Amino acid sequence: MPAFFILLYRFFRSLWHGLKDREFRALFLWVLTILILGTWFYARVEGWRVLDSLYFTITTLTTIGYGDFYPKTDAGKIFTILYIFVGLGLISSFIILLGEKSGLIRRSEEKEK
């Protein structure tokens, strides 16, 4: 259990320090925007509750995909296809940048030095 709290502390510390960086802050805002957009779309088009829509957007973009929710309308399916292509790149870039800020990930140029 202490390891979980240490990990949580490092996550929020990295997020706090990252927000001071212009590139990180811009990517963070894009991630928030795409999560809000997806949540709004699924709540509106699929008729899901906001919490269910947010849950679906996060499980989709992190490639977990439990399958308990899935789009039933054609518009929802088409949006999901495009949403995955755009959102997956944003989320993965954000996770990598967050890992670099926390010191868990180093760029290959830094490793060679």
- Number of continuous helical runs: 5
Count of strand segments? 0
Number of domains: 1
Question: Which parts are unreliable, with pLDDT below 50 for 5 consecutive residues or more?
Answer: none
* Beta-strand content bin: under 5%
| Distance, first to last CA | 36 Å
Structural category is: mainly alpha
Q: Biggest sheet, in brief?
A: none
Mean pLDDT rating: 88
Element order: H for helix, E for strand? HHHHH
Brief account:
This protein is mainly α. The protein is built from five helices and no strands. 78% of the residues lie in helices and 0% in strands.
Descriptive notes:
The protein is mainly alpha-helical. It has a single domain, classed as Helix Hairpins (Orthogonal Bundle). The protein is built from 5 helices and no strands. Helix 1 (2-18) crosses helix 4. The model has no long low-confidence stretch (mean pLDDT 88).
Give keywords.
78% helix; mainly alpha; 113 residues; elongated
